[in-house]
Amino acid sequence: MPRRSPATEERSGTPGSPRRGEKVRGSSWAPETARSSAPGGCSSPPAWSTSFPDLSGLRELWGRDVLHCPYCHGHEVRDQAIGVLGTGPLAVHQALLFRQWSADVTLFRHTSPDPTEAEQEQLAARGVAVVEGEVVALESTGGRLSGVRLDTGRVVPRSAVTVTPRFAARSAVLAGLGITAVEHPRGVGSHVDTDPSGLTAVPGVWAAGNVADLMIQVVGSAAAGVTAGAAINADLVAEDTRLAVERWRSRRQDPFSPEAEARMCEQLVGDRRHGL
Question: Taking a C-beta distance cutoff of 8 angstroms, is the pair 254, 260 a contact?
Fold first, then answer.
């Protein structure tokens, strides 16, 4: 592929995504990636897709009585009867966070792992009720949440329910470069693993934003993009310098190059040479 100018080029869609060994200098394209000349640099600042538990009634109540973030939505449901739907290892953590907003919090174990002894003690100390069994539906009356239905048929009255979404990095466009998303260590989804500068396991490819850090906010994503951009530029400088050194060495080693002939003339004739 011809060497491109440093100017940014916008490309869209997976069909135009890079392939291993492809050289695109200083380019970026939506939604996810940019690759520089080999080894060069590739920046990937997309987002993630979000999935929720498949429960009857959840979709209809999402964004009103079904919430997920205590910092974004906790104030809206303060002092209400809150239910926390446990679906992963952060269930207890989620329950304790929402306990800041209400004294009436119930953790529905659902599919979450058994709480440790320490977690059980924490829940008891904070007055968080724990309900065993799987949840099969969210009940509503007049378009508002009224209760949580268990597989036993029991309905526990609640006016708000919190869920833990699963985030999946939209990294399909990076697959052509040999990069695959891995499970996040906190069990909240999948992400692209990077070092602090955003460098992935594939040389010449950086990732920034939610594709690498599922929990990062807008300001943090912007900062990560700046960090990755600086690392990419440093990599480009190093590559340009390496190529320049190779060319310089090649010219010095060629006995018939203009530079070599000029050096030979200087050595043999010195100030006795005539003409140009």
Answer: yes
| Domains of the chain in sequence order | 14-49+169-252 (no CATH), 53-164 (3.50.50.60)
Give the number of other CB atoms < 10 A from CB of residue 67: 20
Q: How far apart are CA 25 and CA 103, in angstroms?
A: 57
| Cα torsion through 222, 25, 38, 197, rounded to 10 | -10
Q: Which residue has the tokens 């708000």?
A: 160
Residue 256 three-state SS: coil
Q: Would the pTM count as exceeding 0.70? A: no
Please, what is the Cα angle at 182 between 178 and 188, to 5 degrees? 150
- List, for residues 71-92, the tens digit of each pLDDT value: 988 999 999 999 999 998 889 9
Contacts of 21 by beta carbon, 8 Å cutoff, 6+ apart: 38
Q: What is the pLDDT of residues 107-159, one digit of tens each?
A: 999 999 999 999 999 999 999 999 999 999 999 999 999 999 999 999 999 99
